[in-house]
Amino acid sequence: MSASYDILCIGNAIVDILASVSHETVTALGAVPGSMTLIDAATAHDIEARIQVEQVSGGGSGANTAAVAARMGAKVAYLGKVAADKAGEDFARDMSAQGLYFPSAPLVDSTPTARCIVLVTPDGQRTMFTYLGACTEFTTEDVAAQTVENSAITYLEGYLFDKPQAQAALIRAAELAQKAGKRVALTLSDTFCVERHRDAFRTLISKHVDVLFANEAELQALYQVTDTDAALVAVGHDVSLAAVTRGAEGSVVVANGERHDVVTQPVNVVDTTGAGDAFAAGFLAGLAKGHDLTVCAQLGNKAAGAIITRLGARPAEDFTLKA
């Protein structure tokens, strides 16, 4: 069936706030250098008051995937919850600038838009403070049915599983996509996320997911094994297509009982943030263009390789990879 969009990404809508700071600033905030700390709204406001903000952009795993896929020539839509505040306006503006369709209505209560404050010290290390705010308030009412039905692939971000209403929303989106004859993809997002919601993930995967994305640790956590080969065998029984990243070793595609190991080219790694998001973008962009699965994995490897050679999870101006 025809579709208006190649890919619809649904995820936590987070504004990335970037600032260069001294090591002393990180120490004064009581953070371990290189760590990620969950914070409340008051703490986010306090940190922002202490820094000179250099860059504000849309963020979040699914949004990163959407942005990279769009740069690779895919037609992409995005659903995620922001608030009716300046940060929410910044997020919407960034989505538009990336060429993405973003029809989500803002949250109208007093909960601020989610933000990830990224403090970069002179050695290039990134220390992050994340306030989840409005993004976790995504509900079934936020699932734009027409957008789902008009998207060839609906890609679900596993991080959204942390609230029951968001779980319900992802299931609703998957059901709508299936009913419309479209494909459903899921990224497991994080090993801790898998540990918290393993049973719910297994149910979603068995009932609704056509394409599963994970790294080795996430897949092992899903099947409670310590061996990647065993996890790959297990996932082959649950989905028709799985794409698993293996860092410098590249990726593995499992499809209809067959396994394809796809190597990647070595690059100078600067920042691995967003590597999995970019891999999914490259793979899905290739899938949307009708490439065979090995080529899709190669595109995913190349997209991830391009992202990790610089700071940040979004493509730079010189990003030229096409599906």
Task: Describe what you observe in this structure.
The chain has 323 residues and is an alpha/beta fold. The protein has eleven helices and 13 strands. It has helices at residues 23-28, 41-50, 61-71, 86-97, 145-149, 164-179, 191-208, 216-223, 228-238, 275-288, 293-307; strands at 5-10, 14-20, 36-38, 55-59, 76-79, 114-120, 126-131, 151-157, 183-187, 211-215, 241-245, 251-255, 258-262. Helix 3 (61-71) crosses helix 10 (275-288), helix 7 (191-208) packs across helix 8 and helix 10 (275-288) packs antiparallel against helix 11. The longest helix has 18 residues, at 191-208. It is globular, with a radius of gyration of 19 Å. The model has no long low-confidence stretch (mean pLDDT 93). Residues 50-315 form the Carbohydrate kinase PfkB domain. GO terms for molecular function: kinase activity. Belongs to the carbohydrate kinase PfkB family. This is Sugar kinase.
Count of DSSP H/I helices: 11
Task: State the shape.
Answer: globular
Overall structural class, as computed from helix and strand content, comes to alpha/beta
- Biggest pleated sheet: 8 strands, mixed
Kindly report how far apart the N and C termini lie.
21 Å
Model regions low in confidence, pLDDT < 50 over at least 5 residues: none
Give me the side-by-side strand order of the main sheet. Answer: 5-1-8-9-10-11-12-13
Keywords: Kinase, Transferase
Family: Belongs to the carbohydrate kinase PfkB family.
GO molecular function, one term: kinase activity
Protein name: Sugar kinase
